[in-house]
Amino acid sequence: MSRQRLSERLNAAQRVTVVSAPPGSGKTVLLRSWIAEADLADSAAWVSVGGDERDPQRFWLSVLGTLRQTTAGSALVRELTAAPDLDGWAIAERLLKDLVPLEDRIWLVIDDVHELGSGEARRQLELLVMRAPQELRFVLATRHDLRLGLHRLRLEGELTEIREPDLRFTVDEARKLVGAAGVVLPEQALALLHDRTEGWAAGLRLAALSLAGHPDPGRFAERFSGSERTVAEYLVAEVLDRQSGAARRLLLRTSILERVSGPLADALTGGSDGERILQELEETNAFVVSTDATRSWFRYHHLFADLLQLKLRRTAAGEVSALHRAATSWFAGHGHPVEAVRHAQAAQDWNLASRLLADHWPTLQLGGHAETVHELLAGFPAEAAAAYAELAVLIAADELAQGSLEAAERYLGLAARASATVPADRRERQQVLLEMVRLLLARQCGNPPAVAEEARRLQAIAEAPDTALPGLGEELRGLALISLGITEVWAAQFEVAERHLEQGVALARRIGRPFLEFSGLAHQAVIETYRSFAQAAERCRRAIELAEQHGWTDEPTAGTAYVMLGAVLAWQGRAEEAEPWVQRAERTVRAETELAAGMVVHHTRGVLELVRGRYQDALAAFRAAEQLAGNLAAPHLHVPPTRGLLLHVLVRLGQIERAEQALAELGEPDRERGETRTALAALRLAQDDPHAATAALAPVLDGSAPLIRRTWLIGAFLLEAIARDALGDPAAAERPLECALDLAEPDGLLLFFVLQPAPALLERHARHRTAHPSLIAEILDLLAGKMPAPPTGLQALLGPLSSSEIRVLRYLPTNLSQPEIANELHVSRHTIRTHMSHLYAKLGTHSRTEAVERARALGLLAPHAPRR
Question: DSSP state, 141?
Fold first, then answer.
């Protein structure tokens, strides 16, 4: 099949082209197809080097013969026959002399150059490459690089390199290849097949041949692996059998690993030259790929790893558990706890796995790796929680993170009751784990006294002089401060909350705990909305960018930043811009268990629907917010605004009696709040009683009626202006209207002007002396339906993003390389590459930069922070 993108690279190639890739990558087929497509049959000389060719004379006679078959070469290259004393150097020199007058281009294609076993022949080829005339172009196909002095050509810009990543088939090419065998695969099965083969041409071709006539092609594609007979035979013959005994032993014993380094390989083989062998395997394209710039970590091609694992099970099944235990020991001792736990689980050593996870859970939790912990916990059998108290407390934390308060409390109780079974030297650690989870549970329930008590206990344990957890004290203090601040924010205890959050964020920065810093920043943004919406939006963006850098965008805390940014935009009347952020908050925050944040999400959804004039939807959202508030252990700061806006909505819907009833059901303190009195004024105006409206507003305007947020004064002054105008005193209406505009102007807050539209009053005011003509024009445009247009040309995603793809997407705006992203997420580099490939396809992009820009436009990533 034609591979246009590679043919174009060959057409534009420099004087020397190297096509270097493992066996079965399609090198030979590519070059033959290119010659045919480019109509080069008369100007391309093809030489295939025989297996382990060690006769320089035979090689050079082949080169001469094939050059003579080209149109240009036939007139220049003299015929030569074999002779016992014929010297390869002499042949190369004669060939150079013959080609001096060459004017028409010739391509000398040498296939399987790696089979040139004679060092002398390779040096002679280097002589020809370096001294040949410009019109003689070289195309060298090889399984591994040869020392031909090509580094000099690279520096001079005379070398074109096509390597294994370039030769991998794209999903579209894989579809065509499979289709050529008469097989039509569902897209999901095709993607899985492409992922398993990593675009390897031979793997795809063998799969296509096996698929032809298969009764269930989709099922076959999903299960395709390196242990499939035809693939295994190919890999054994072309790769494994060609390796030395030491290399085969290393490959087999390290096949249990997702990634391997030289020292780790030595630990599993008992050898001392693992790094050299791995580097040589990579250099020879033996399906071993380095995953970092220093070439210290490597992985095996998926299908090759399948084959190796099959061979290991067949030849040394009794050693597999021991190898996993050795890997556990090495990873644990070298600071890789996640991999250590996975190998302990693979060895079915549940006690060791649970202890390792318990030892490192505080660090993983405070580092924002709750999803990784969730995946690790899924690797334990169901009965392990009852057998290991340390594991039970971690499951409680996971249930809490996954949104099940009831299950979290059940496992927490199980862990507490079984703590006596924990070995004595680990009981203090168990107690710290219990206190951490209790603190998180109290925080999630919005219970400030309980949070304060658990924070005090946690710090007392962690900071004891004889603590068994040295070095963890400051992290736990940071967790306590941030947790206190978060709970106090939702309880409207802003002064003390701000102090705790500032201390917690500063401590998190000092000790290098960005997840704690991120949590603090997101909730500082909540406080900031009560001072400056612009500053609040800036804090939200900072928190979101931090989340994107570290892959925390699915964390409930990120939902707080999303919803506050959405709230700012909604208050500014920018409904289309707010919608993606509110949607992200709705996907991220589990409202039934993240009660405090969930209430804010429902409240903000209501505000957004108000701006759009969808009053029934707004009413449903505000009622959902009120219902959540009733489950909180302490009053929530959004309760008064929610009740006030709910009353406004009832008025807008014309449900006057229901509004009166809702007011009557409130207690005296709630009825006297500024939010309620503002809604009462709207109700009285709807009842044609402007006098009663001004009476209701008086305590709000003189400051005696309490308000959670001063922005509600915008609504109060606006309603005062409407009431005065209704009383026939337009002059008296000007001052409160100007006050409303004064308050709205700095942050562009238009919500109340949409909620209580007064276009005639605003138009009249614009003709008089006002400091806000542009703001009035903006409000009138909004009321007239001239909403800001969304970015043009945007289409929906070409497919839904999985949670794993979303996690990878958040890293794309960062400077982290693919291996570094893989390390952050504790997955293989291949997994990252696969997710990025799927992201590009679903976003309809072709590069990382394009993907980031499109994701920003779709609201999947934070917009660029505005430049100052």
Answer: E
